[in-house]
Amino acid sequence: MSNAMADTLQGWGRRCQVTGLKVHSEAEKLIKVNAVVAVVAFLVGVIAAIGLVLTRWQAVHLLPADWYYRLMTVHGMNMLIFFILFFEMAVLYFAGPVLLNCRVPAPKVGWLAFGLMVLGAVMVDVVIFAGKADVLFTSYVPLRAHPLFYLGVILFAVGAILVTCLFFASLVVAKREQTYEGSVPLVTFGALTAAIIAAITLLHGAAIYIPTFLWSLNIIPIDPELYRVVWWGLGHSSQQINVAAMVSVWYLLGGLTVGAVVLNEKISRSAFSLYVLFISMASAHHLLVDPGLGPAWKVWNTSYAMYLAVLASMIHGFTVPAGIEMGQRLRGLVKGRFEWLRKAPWGDPGFSGMFLSLVIFGFFGGITGVTSGTEQINIIAHNTLRIPGHFHVTVVGGTALAFMAVTYYVLPLIFQRKVALWGLAKIQPYLFGVGIVIMAMSMTFAGSFGVPRRHWDITFAGAATSVEFHPMVDMLMGTMAIGGLLAAIGALAYIAIAVLSVFFGQKVDWSRVGDGGAGIPQGVAKLPKQAHTGAAVEQVHQAGTPGTMVLVGVFLTVFVLYYFVNWKMLSMVWKIG
Amino acid sequence: MTEQKERPGEETPLGQRLLDRPFVLLVAGVLVMLAFYTLWGIFELVTLPTATLP
Fold first, then answer.
1. Is A112 helix (H, G, I), strand (E, B) or coil?
2. Which end of chain A is less crowded, N or C, counting CB atoms within 10 A of the terminal residue's CB?
3. CB B19 within 8 Å of CB A269
4. Per-domain residue ranges for chain A?
5. B52 Cα to chain A: minimum distance (Å)
């Protein structure tokens, strides 16, 4: 680094010793505070989750009904909104100002937004724990919470929309100040997709939570069905921000960990643009059994349009592992179909977390989601445990695990700290990933036996009428809890690693980072070079990605079988003849 | 993490120029969702005839 460049960065920020990116000091601080608060919200959500699985496990049935629904509300709000969105705000500051080598346009607005989001989140949590908002994540009208609950959500949303605006402003500033050439990097384009979906989400949030706040003050009435339509424009779309952010993290970690290449920029960007246009319509899945909405609206939104977003996910589900395979083959791992996979850095939690996230989201989440989102099949899945079974492998096994994986690179690259408890960090993604899969698949199969979601006591003890489930359900509810507890151990391990690293971790010695060792992920010790031209590249391109093609074949076979079995199950509900 | 760079003298394809405009994408994304999900859904509900009691 020249002295002139060092001077330029004085009072502005620093240059990353690994990636060479200029890091604006305000961007760095805002990434840090948003990531730290995200982990705090995650801790609250995990504690609530332990109470929930130990209650739904009928053999334990830990909590009374009121605390079950209270912790269900805490879990939903902290996991699906606070943890995820705080982390995504950090992603936006990284993918905007850092990747584009520019400044945060209005840092004071960033701090104002952060303050609003923290205030809103604290208000919501305090009101719920005070027992004034046992309305669950959906807060369906006419269930009524204390007005401060709705006000807290509104303040949080205003903060989030300010950060989204700052991200758009950083695109404008970077373009004007010519801090990059050509198109923005693919990871930034993915974050742009997330930001656009965030705008859609927050528009719906404002459109529904402001009237609901007024309704809670007895100022205006609200129609429950209209509430459901507009609310799901927020409730489901907010989870699609996760999808776009998660896919961006996959591309980022592929590059950082094994030098993955982007097979085709045009294809990957087109797939992201399909998300922009069509993925938010998936909100209609939640209304498939609502009688007020017609079949044309339902089928258009959940099938014709939404399948274009599914196509986008399947494209990313191919291009990410294929890019990893290509990157590994360019590093000489060309034997057979799977040497690139066998010799991947499985001891690097950044890589293992990313790859597990990809598999869990694609195989388990994608297949269950598309199947139960089909209008006809939905009738046997709606409001059963199949639905939380599905979204725990997309949002948790997919997004949360991807965010955990990228944390192992954020700690040294942004916080400039070694990863603490390195031995535990290496196995943490496996603990969490395996636990979530066991839990979610148990939920999915229990749901196939008709077990309802969000239900405190499926034995209906003391009720006038009794309901009996297949004996298999007892076992499935037990494995659900065991998987959930294993995932909770993995989640608590992640929190311990993050807290110890940030507040008590060893500073990275950049002069010796190349030596690697405990606490330094291998991609930080030696950033893999990406090759795009040359004879070796040409040779590998000619060979293609045969290993990924096999994985795609397995995926499509499982998809077809699961889809067929569900139609068969549907046909058995009403036998004709 | 790659950046797409233009080669000198080469015209940027239409698709790439479109995807390079974040505000066009923003408007398109918001309009499609509003038209097909939100407004159509609300229209279905507000035009629903009131059920007559038996």
1. helix
2. C
3. yes
4. 26-235, 246-456+468-507+527-571
5. 15
The C-alpha atoms of residue A526 and residue A436 are separated, in whole angstroms, by 32
Length of chain A: 577
Please state the three-class secondary structure of A547-561 as a single string: HHHHHHHHHHHHHHH
Contact between chains at A280 and B42 (C-beta distance less than 8 A): no
Tell me the torsion sign for CA atoms A510, A515, A519, A523.
positive
A233 residue type, one letter: G
Chain B residue with Cα closest to A100: B3
Copy the structure tokens of residue A513.
């980072």
pTM as predicted: 0.94
Contact A425, A353 (CB under 8 A): no
Would you call B29 and A280 a contact, using CB atoms and an 8 Å cutoff?
Answer: yes
pLDDT at residue A490 is higher than 80: yes
Q: What gap in Å lies between CA A111 and CA A116, rounded to an integer?
A: 9
Nearest chain B Cα to A230, which residue? B38
A450 φψ region: left (φ > 0), alpha (ψ -120 to 50), beta (else): left
User: Which CATH number applies to A246-456+468-507+527-571: 3.40.50.1820, 3.40.50.1000, 3.30.2270.10, 1.20.210.10?
Assistant: 1.20.210.10
| Whole-number Å distance between alpha carbons of A348 and A354 | 10
Interchain pair B44, A297: CB under 8 A: yes
**A178 vs A155: CA distance, rounded Å:** 34
Please name the residues between 337 and 396 in chain A that touch chain B, using a CB distance below 8 Å: none
| Residue A168 contacts B, CB cutoff 8 Å | yes
> CA A302, CA A306: separation in Å to the nearest integer?
5
Token pair for B3: 């950046």
Rounded percentage of chain A residues whose pLDDT exceeds 70: 98
d(CA A58, CA A461): 11
Q: Is A264 an 8 Å CB contact of chain B?
A: no
Give the fold, CATH level 3, of A26-235: Cytochrome C Oxidase; Chain A (1.20.210)
Query: Best of A101, A197, A229 to disrupt the B interface by mutation (most B CBs within 10 Å)?
Result: A229
A382: which residues sit within 8 A by CB, 6+ positions away?
A288, A289
Contacts of A252 in chain B (CB under 8 A): 1
Burial of B44 (0-12, 13-18, 19+ CB in 10 A): middle
Number of H helices and number of E strands within chain B? 3, 0
B positions 5-34 inside 8 Å of A (CB): 5-6, 15-16, 19-20, 22-23, 25-26, 28-30, 32-33
ipTM of the complex: 0.91
A366-404 tens-digit pLDDT:
999 999 999 899 999 999 999 999 999 999 999 999 999
Cis-peptide, bond into residue A142, ω within 30° of zero? yes
Distance CA A193, CA A168 (A): 11
Helix (H, G, I), strand (E, B) or coil at A58: coil
Phi, psi of A187 (to 5 degrees): -65, -40
Question: A26-235 and A246-456+468-507+527-571 share one CATH topology?
Answer: yes
